[in-house]
């Protein structure tokens, strides 16, 4: 609890927020949430823009990954072809 998490959703959306709670089904409640926006043509590429969302409830069925913000480093995809 009270740790920063990065949550990725089916469809490509990605948010970072502070874990405030969860339930038995693993629905998450994140506070001070920020969404990182993606390109409209390429859902895997970030635009570098973000928007503040505040408090967010993340539905379990929409979540694809949950990672801690600290201790993780994003790397380039070695399988991506230009």
TrEMBL record:
MF-aspect GO terms: RNA binding
One of the GO BP terms on file: nuclear-transcribed mRNA catabolic process
Family matches, as InterPro entries: Lsm7, Lsm7/SmG-like, LSM_dom_sf, Sm, Sm_dom_euk/arc
Domain Sm stretches: 1-72
GO CC annotations, alphabetized: catalytic step 2 spliceosome; Lsm1-7-Pat1 complex; spliceosomal tri-snRNP complex; U12-type spliceosomal complex; U2-type prespliceosome; U6 snRNP
Swiss-Prot/TrEMBL keywords: mRNA processing, mRNA splicing, Nucleus, Ribonucleoprotein, RNA-binding, Spliceosome
Main location, first listed in the record: nucleus
Subcellular location(s) of the protein: Nucleus
Keyword RNA-binding tagged: yes
Protein family: Belongs to the snRNP Sm proteins family.
The name this protein goes by in its record: U6 snRNA-associated Sm-like protein
